[in-house]
Amino acid sequence: MRRLTLSLLLLGACHPAVSDSYLEWAEKSWQFQDPGRLGVGDSFALKVFGQDDLSGSFVVNDMGVIRFPLVGTVTAQGRTCAELEEDVTQRLAATFLKAPLVTCSLVEMRSRRVSVVGQVVSPGSMLYTPGLTVVDAVAAAKGIDATNASGDVVVTRMVDGHQVRVEVPLQEIMKGRAPNLLLWPGDVVFVPTFQLLN
User: Is the pLDDT of residue 12 over 50?
Assistant: First the structure.
């Protein structure tokens, strides 16, 4: 028993401890306040029953709006499909159609993305999906360029309107000595260049 305890102590001494700050971040997951709220680049379909010429697919533009036939500009950013259904229904009923039936369905939510930049083989961005981890993101970028990358990565994210940096001990995660980090929509995963100390 003493030998096992001594071995564990020596093992811990050989590897840097994972910071308390990182462990706190690793326990947090992004809470879907409303998973259906639309953002720029998201696409959805609006169908007006019995009116094929009014039905179609739409993409939220950079101004956060769409152009709907007969209705004109409709704000989509920050709204749900149910809210869009109600808005378009009321506007059509007020001027063009009697008791229109409008349905909305999400097609793709491209506004929720995660970017991987720096010393990875294939930097870029990917769609956010619940449960996406920092290891998943690095793997999707085809891994770290081992000749130029350091052992850690930095995740930059927005929290309550403020940008924060989370230093992620990637090597410790890969070795099973630290928990994986769940990513949030909008996170930027940065793999820095390795720098030799003089």
Answer: no
